[in-house]
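Pilot study result, target chain (173 residues):
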Amino acid sequence: MTRHMRGLLPRESENNGRHSTMDDLTNQEIVAVLDDAERLVPVARGDVYLPLLQGKVLANMFFENSTRTRMSFETAMKRLGGSVLNFTSIGTSVAKGETLYDTMQMIDGYADVAAIRHPRQGAAQYSADAVEIPILNAGDGAGNPPTQTMLDLFTIRQAHGTLEGLNVALSEI
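Predicted structure:
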């Protein structure tokens, strides 16, 4: 997550909501997000409708192909009562050479939050610096998307009941 999430999430973070990478989060913030995710499992399953984000708009800004990540953000937003604008660079002014800055400035006027997936590392932070709305890093180049890391940590915690005392190895395939 990047920028302030005021109005979207109930709590303030120590970093004022600027989270482009996992390094931007404290251990306490990670645990708090995982705790929130745990409480939202019934919503994620579709068992409970909780319109926390009713009236809010998410712009899914996907500059490279993705199925699971895009649909995950879209499903989460809709299950929390919000709406989604799906953006791809094909068939837009980006295809004609519009800059990332100009594209994000335009989106800033339409959405309350944006999830960005871009092939260039650092694009999420660049976007966050260009706009007032919060930016969610859905992957940028070789960077590690914090949303995927949080999902992995959530899955490990679900399987083991805790993250304390675990040794986790990460490798690139």
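One observation from the pilot: Residues 22-160 form a domain with the Rossmann fold fold (CATH 3.40.50.1370). A full batch analysis is planned for the follow-on phase.
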